[in-house]
């Protein structure tokens, strides 16, 4: 689970890899045919200490049932995998199958199979629609969503009871009211944790803008200073001005803010699946529950993150071999075990059904079909995100939301 937390910090390094200029890279070398069979090269990141053994077990079981196919596993740390991918692609030695987050640059240069060329129609249809849409460019799906993370609102049930808050809020107005009641308890207790520091201001802000039906793009153009986004950020500033949040949100990063919640001093925070384990480790006596994130009108929404599998159109016809292996990986028993062991959320409908009884992730699975995503396939998103991380906290220092969004827009426009 710790690996999942780190992914939010390193994800944009992978975007840079996928944005390499790859046009003209033909893939030569061995065609992968050997001894009457076929060999697939498979490059994956290490999510945990158990990732290597988990994939080795999956591959061993697959090869036992498909003796004509050999899968050669290569595993790299997240610190190294972007450099490894870059070197392999530039050397005309891309892996047959790659597990990473970003894929748009490879797809733009026509280096990848589309989803319907990689897996069966049944496998494609099994993906949650929100994750399938996020893995698509111009209507064509190029990444197969492998693992997911989503967010829900964690709330301190003991503070709610003391403050007279009967139920978790569903709308922004209810959230403001509940947060002010909890903050009214005093003794260093805050209503709502709003982390607008440099660690992940874009995450907190997206939760609000997406919760108002907003977006960071208009077609292929970055669109920050839109009416829907302005309305959301204006309400964020109202939360701050009415002392419904912790002091100085602009100086608050998510990780230390969550620690304050775990210590029992914040009424509500938006958190991730690994937060469950952190609470169990740091303060198992904390009385808390989770619920969908409040939105302006109460319609369900969550911020989603996904990593993908993709297959390169290398020399030699391996399409059917790739399809055989990937259909096996996404078969419900195999896929569910992988996701559950690594501590993530499933991207497939069958996986969600299989894990529906797991209490620790039940609230996350509930909101998963309503996931919204960063526009990570847009080449200007990395710049936009950086501007949000450095500038959004100014709304807690008196700067008007419209001026902040205009400044971020200007940075995005270059």
From TrEMBL:
UniProtKB keywords: Sugar transport, Transport
InterPro entries per record: Bact_solute-bd_prot1 (IPR050490), SBP (IPR006059)
Highest taxon listed in the record's lineage: Bacteria
Annotated SUPFAM superfamilies: Periplasmic binding protein-like II
Coiled-coil ranges per UniProt: none
Pfam families referenced in this protein's UniProt entry, alphabetically: SBP_bac_1
Cross-referenced PROSITE patterns: PROKAR_LIPOPROTEIN (PS51257)
Listed name of the protein: Multiple sugar transport system substrate-binding protein
Source species of the chain: Micromonospora parathelypteridis
């Amino acid at each position: 689970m710790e690996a999942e937390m780190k992914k939010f910090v390193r994800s944009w390094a992978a975007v840079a890899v996928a944005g390499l200029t790859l046009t003209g890279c033909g893939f030569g070398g061995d065609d992968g045919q050997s001894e009457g069979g076929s060999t697939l090269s498979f490059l994956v990141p290490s999510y945990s200490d158990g990732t290597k053994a988990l994939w080795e077990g999956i591959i061993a079981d697959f090869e036992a049932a498909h003796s004509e196919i050999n899968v050669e596993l290569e595993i790299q740390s997240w610190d190294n995998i972007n450099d490894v991918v870059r070197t392999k692609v530039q050397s005309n030695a891309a892996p047959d199958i790659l597990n990473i987050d970003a894929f748009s640059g490879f797809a733009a240069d026509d280096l990848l199979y589309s989803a319907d060329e990689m897996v069966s129609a049944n496998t494609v249809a099994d993906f949650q629609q929100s994750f399938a849409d996020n893995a698509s460019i111009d209507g064509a799906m190029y990444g197969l969503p492998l693992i997911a993370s989503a967010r829900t609102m964690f709330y301190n049930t003991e503070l709610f009871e003391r403050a007279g808050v009967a139920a978790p809020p569903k709308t922004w107005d209810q959230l403001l009211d509940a947060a002010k009641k909890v903050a009214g308890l005093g003794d260093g207790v805050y209503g709502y944790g709003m982390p607008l520091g440099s660690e992940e201001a874009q995450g907190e802000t997206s939760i609000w803008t997406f919760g108002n039906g907003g977006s960071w793009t208009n077609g292929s153009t970055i669109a920050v200073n839109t009416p829907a986004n302005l309305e959301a950020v204006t309400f964020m500033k109202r939360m701050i001005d009415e002392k419904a949040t912790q002091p100085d949100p602009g100086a608050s990063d998510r990780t230390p803010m969550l620690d304050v919640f775990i210590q029992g001093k914040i009424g509500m925070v938006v958190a991730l699946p690994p937060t469950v384990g952190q609470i169990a480790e740091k303060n198992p006596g904390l009385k808390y529950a989770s619920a969908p994130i409040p939105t302006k009108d109460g319609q369900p929404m969550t911020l989603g993150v996904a990593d993908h599998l993709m297959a390169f159109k290398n020399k030699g016809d391996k399409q059917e071999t790739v399809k055989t292996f990937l259909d096996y990986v996404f078969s419900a028993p195999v896929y569910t075990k992988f996701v559950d062991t690594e501590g993530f959320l499933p991207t497939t409908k069958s996986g969600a059904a299989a894990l529906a009884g797991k209490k620790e992730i039940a609230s996350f699975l509930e909101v998963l079909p309503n996931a919204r995503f960063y526009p990570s396939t847009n080449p200007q998103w990395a710049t936009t995100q950086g501007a949000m991380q450095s500038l959004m906290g100014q709304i807690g220092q008196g700067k008007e939301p419209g001026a902040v969004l205009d400044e971020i827009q200007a940075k995005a426009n270059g």
